[in-house]
Amino acid sequence: MRRMQLVDIGVNLAHDSFDGDREAVIARAHAAGVMQMVVTGSSLLSTASAIALARAAPGRLCATAGVHPHHAAELGPEQQESLETLAAAAEVAAVGECGLDYFRDFSPRDAQRRAFEWQLELAARLGKPVFLHQRDAHEDFTAILRTHRAGIRAAVAHCFTGNAAQLETYLELGLAIGITGWICDERRGTHLRALMPAIPAGRLMLETDAPYLLPRDLAPRPASRRNEPAFLPHVAQTVALARGEPLAALAAHSTEASRRFFGLPDI
Length: 267
What we know:
By secondary structure, this protein is α/β, with parallel strands linked by helices. About 40% of the residues lie in helices and about 15% in strands. It contains nine helices and eight strands. The protein has helices at about 20-30, 45-55, 75-85, 110-125, 140-150, 165-170, 190-195, 230-245, 245-260; strands at about 5-10, 35-40, 60-65, 90-100, 130-135, 155, 175-180, 205.
């Protein structure tokens, strides 16, 4: 019988917290059944690092290329040119992480909106999917996305944490939905469990967002409190229970959807 396989569609593997043991982290992920990972690019530097990691492990890793809304104010003409070159690389499977974040407002909102629109236009030019971020900005995010949606091949709402109405809107826009360990958080994520059956098979993907979002109910918890892709099966089990389906079935359709979306091979 073939071993269950998972794909982590959002791991910040270029983060400096992995500098001391990155190869071991990848090995632990593979041992846990997480056979492929999408390495998130959220700045020019992390995008370049994500591409380098993907280039060293073809078929196992791929990259995204983008500027997170936290860094939107840094995306001037020169940086746009650099990002476009990076995003065109064969190892880049999607443009992003891009979108709006009004929770932190680390960049002015007008700069966030400009950077988001430009990256949507970039994805359309390159014919690549989009890896989306939204926090506390649903109305503006949706309005911008609607304007550009027809030109975008595909898009995934990374780390979805919203309510039923927001989920309905995203599904109506044809988005895939990425679910993280937020669903394991008894303080702020339990509402997601009731929404899981509403996500059609083929549109649901799984991610850790490591090193962030360590599942709060993970036992034992690592002393470092660092999340890593080896913990994705824990998230998958929580999602499967919420959907009322066997873990193997969830793994099969979420992995197939992820591979199709990001152009990853069946291994």
